[in-house]
Amino acid sequence: MNKTRTLTYVWPKSIRLFHWINVITISLLIVIGLIIFNGKTLGVTVDAKIMLKTIHVTIGYIFAINLIIRLVMGFIGSSNDMWSQTLPFMKGYKKELTKFRRSPKQVYKGHNPIGKLMVLALLIAMTIQMATGLILAGTDIYYPPLGQHFAKSIAVDETQLDVIEPYSKVNVDDERYKQLREFRSPIITAHVYAFYALVILIPLHILGVIVAERREKSGLVSAMINGYKFLPEKSNNHKT
Fold first, then answer.
1. CATH number for the domain including 35?
2. Which domain holds residue 188?
3. Inter-residue contact 61 to 88 (CB < 8 Å)
4. Domain count of the chain?
5. Is the dihedral of CA 66, 69, 75, 76 positive or negative?
6. 100, 106 in Cβ contact below 8 A?
7. Closest CA to 223 of 54, 103, 108
8. I need a surface site. Which of 21, 64, 92, 114 has the fewest CB within 10 A?
9. Handedness of CA 59, 67, 119, 9 (dihedral sign)
């Protein structure tokens, strides 16, 4: 590998902004989610639980908007935004992976082949979290986008939806509410298991970055802050 390095622009501002908003929102969601999940053990009151869920959902909206923008940019963005450059689906990926296994110290402009697999796994887990979370926002505290629909589905009087509140039986049909909880059951299960997946994947992602940085010495972490990596001037770097 050519020892001469040059500062090369790799990650556009949109990618870096997505990454750090993601880091902050997921960290907050994990902490608040754990408190909610262990509410009985921690002695969390009903009012406090409603407040925590409200905060959790509000942060979840930021997480969801950020993720949706990134998903869209993967189809219409610039070169390094595109899924064809980021996910392990591009033509020649298997050859790229084989080459990486034989020479793991080679430097990549973007993600290396293992990094692409990690991005895919994280995206799947985050998308499941987003989809199930938006549904649970409606079933648990009657928040958008489905809150009104769920409130209407359990209401005794559909003209008085504004009196339906979390953990309150006012204007709530018991049988319909039971059906709503049955509908909710597999959704919360998927939400919890996607959470477990993220709890496993995130440390693996951090470990992978540390290992890759020790091998490549290209400034992986700083690149996600300023957009630049130190790359060999005359190497066949992948644009991925």
1. 1.20.950.20
2. 5-232
3. no
4. 1
5. negative
6. yes
7. 108
8. 92
9. negative
Q: Per residue in 114-146, pLDDT tens?
A: 999 999 999 999 999 999 999 999 999 999 999
Report residue 99's pLDDT band, with 50, 70 and 90 as the boundaries.
confident
Considering only CA atoms, which of 5, 116, 130 is closest in space to residue 57?
130
Stretch 66-85: mean pLDDT, rounded? 87
Q: What is the pLDDT of residues 166-194, one digit of tens each?
A: 999 999 999 999 999 999 999 999 999 99
Residue 53 lies in a domain: yes
Domain presence at residue 56 = yes
Contact 222, 19 (CB under 8 A): no
The token pair that represents 98 in the structure block: 């084989």
- CB 75: neighbour CB atoms within 10 A? 10
Tell me: pLDDT of 240 over 70: no
Paired with 180 in beta bridges are none
**Could you tell me how far CA 130 lies from the centroid of its own chain?**
7
Distance separating alpha carbons of residues 2 and 233, to the nearest angstrom: 7
Q: What is the mean pLDDT of residues 152-158?
A: 97
Q: What is the mean pLDDT of residues 209-221?
A: 88
Query: Is 237 part of a structural domain of the chain?
Result: no
Quick check: is 50 in a domain? yes
Of 4, 6, 15, which is closest to residue 227 (Cα–Cα)?
A: 15
Distance CA 56, CA 129 (A): 12
Which one, of 184, 191, 189, 73, lies nearest residue 131 by Cα?
191
pTM of the model: 0.90
